[in-house]
Amino acid sequence: MFRTTIALAALIAATPALAQAPSPAELEALVRAQAAEIATLRTRLDRLEAQQAVPATAPVVVAAQDTPTPAPAADGPVVAVTRPFAPQIVPPGPAERNVAQVEAANAAGVTTEWGSGLPVFHSADGVFTYKPRGRILTDVSSTFGSDIDGRNITTTGMRALRLGVEGGVGTQFFYQFEADFSENEVDIVTAFIGWRDRIGTGLDYDVRAGHLFNDRSFEGSTGSDSTPFMERTVVATAIIPQRGFYGIGIMPRLFWKTGHASLTVTGDRVDGAQAVSDSRTALGRVHWNPVKGPRGVLHLGLWGFDESLNPLAGTLTRNTVIGGRFNGALRVSTGPLLGGTGTTGYGAELGGYAGPVWVMAEAGQRHARLDGGRPDFTSQAWSLSGGWFVTGDLPPYNPRLGSFGQPSVRRPIFEGGPGAIELTARYEDLDFTDIATGGRGWAATIGANWYLNSFTRLQLNAIHWATEAPTGPAAGSDNGNTVSARVGVTF
Questions:
Q1: CA-closest candidate to residue 366, choices 231, 262, 235
Q2: Which of 151, 224, 229, 261 could be a cystine partner for 286, CB 3.0 to 4.6 Å?
Q3: What dihedral do alpha carbons 120, 124, 129, 132 form, nearest 10°?
Q4: Average pLDDT for 199-206
Q5: Are residue 375 and residue 317 in the same domain, yes or no?
Q6: Which residue has the higher pLDDT, 121 or 227?
Q7: Any coiled-coil ranges, and where (predicted)?
Q8: Contact assessment for residue 323 and residue 443, using Cβ atoms and an 8 Å cutoff
């Protein structure tokens, strides 16, 4: 009866148009349009009647195919509702259809919670979890006061532009994948699968395999979205394997109540070169918190690496950031350095926090082995950093990993508070003068960070820097100033 009423209504709606004596072609088009509309209405009615036929107390199984898929029920009969689309995708359509799908998902026990700006999905039994993730870091930088005109420039850039996913199955299996688009091209960064378990009380482990981020030095182990300054220290950027921050391999990690240890063995980072063997890198780090309380931590750390380079990867030239990432003319360089066979690096960390104040000192050396009987080339770097949360928030120290993470802002501005405000200062020194073409540089930075909430921040750095170079376009001594700012969000 309801279908007949719909058809009659459609015919009545067409009556005014018919009264205007349309041409045969217009009449044919009108009839076809009316037929299509009636068919659409019938389809919607079929779906609505099918949904209304399901008892309110019955569990609902949404199948991804046209064949009903029964499921056992503890408190009601088995009912199957078929859908010609994947259950995780809600297609556009009438409001009643989308509402019914949401109700079906809720009845199935699927839950969602909101974390750092994006939802975390949990299956009904809690076994499966899934979360999108990413970061957007937008920078502007201006340099002035240099005696070299080419260094006095203003630039913009994306420090990070990442999208990815993470998830797990049960409490043991987990995975993560991220790609970065900051250089206007796709760059695979973190991409791994992992397994974790507990050995005993207060002792657990995980093992990750894939494209792995280094566990090396304090700021070298801190993500680009969590560093207290807009660029990592020269210890993290210069005392580093030749392959950089990432490599494909395996990393087991052991955790206890007051620290952790990791061992990483990798080849090259993601690339398309399979005609020769990868370089090999072995890296280890351990951190310990001999003092650990609710408002204070003492941090000690040691790390080291050794790499053997394949014959085609013998270039060891370094051009290290000293006054900001987005001024390509402002670097401390080794000059051309060819014929490398491998490198060995090591370093130490000492610091911690008490209440809203934190301090961290880092130092490291890297020995580059050269062919032809030449002596090793040694790089040296050190830094001293500190910060104070004037709003009383605690520094975002992660005692499990011995690095910085996202802060826990007590009074976000989105809840009527001031957010968290941090003042920072750093001095760092880098020395490549162990080789005739090598340069040297130092930088003093003062900064301010305003965390609007736990995943959104504004940063400002003012850097006074000085460099010395024996050769090249920046030969001689030079100094100047760089002011940089960032808007960042991590989700």
A1: 235
A2: 261
A3: -40
A4: 95
A5: yes
A6: 227
A7: none
A8: yes
**Alpha-carbon dihedral of residues 71, 72, 78, 82, nearest 10 degrees?**
-10
Handedness of CA 468, 472, 478, 483 (dihedral sign): negative
**One-letter identity of residue 208:** R
Distance CA 435, CA 377 (A): 6
Assign 41 a pLDDT band (cuts: 50, 70, 90). Answer: low
pLDDT digits (tens, 9 = 90+) for 231-262: 999 999 999 999 999 999 999 999 999 999 99
Task: Count up the domains in the chain and report the number.
Answer: 2
* 303 & 393 share domain: yes
Residue showing tokens 């050769």: 471
Kindly report, residue by residue over 55-71, the tens digit of the pLDDT.
Answer: 443 333 333 333 333 33
User: Alpha helices, DSSP H only, in 53-154?
Assistant: 95-108
What beta strand segments (E) does 123-258 contain? 128-144, 154-169, 173-180, 187-200, 203-213, 246-256
Nearest residue to 442 via CA among 461, 463, 472, 459? 463
**What is d(CA 371, CA 152) in angstroms, rounded to the nearest whole number?**
38
